[in-house]
Amino acid sequence: MNQQAQLDALANEIRDTHVCPELEATATQLVMGAGDPNADIVCIGEAPGKNEDEQGKPFVGAAGKFLDEMLAAAGMVREQIYITNIVKYRPPNNRDPLPEEKAAFWPYLMRQLEIIQPKVVLTLGRHSGAAFIPELHISRDHGHARTVRYHDSEFLVIPLYHPAAALYNGGMRQTLIDDFMRVPASIEQHSKG
Fold it and tell me: pTM, whole model, 2 decimals?
């Protein structure tokens, strides 16, 4: 079974086992992820918003457009990476996912990463960053790669500000672009290490 088929089977398992049924009941659909199932880079946000819930794809609103800009600045396109969220259903009124909701989806996110086998995980925002790096301070740690172990898996994780941060604070745009531009060098450095 190829990687996309494995990801599709995982999405069906989430639906069939009704992970977070209260979220499932208020969401339009499951937002599993999108992009290259064999990507070197996986971007992980926290949870789908309104546009994502409607379209069934992650990062399709204003923050997604800025993510596309950052990819372009680094010489990449969305189709070359894989994008997902920790929580796969939109929380009502775009509230933050509850700790138990993140915990319920965490094993499925880990299985997604095991299927894709990326070289680097980019966490978008402090919530997804802190899921991998509990002691994370995004203002201090953004753009700094570190190795994170989870059971038998090891990931190079680079915490980044959420693209939405640049929408609220124009001064953040360049910081985000600069951090993103350093990703290929971080991958290369990690491969040698």
Answer: 0.94
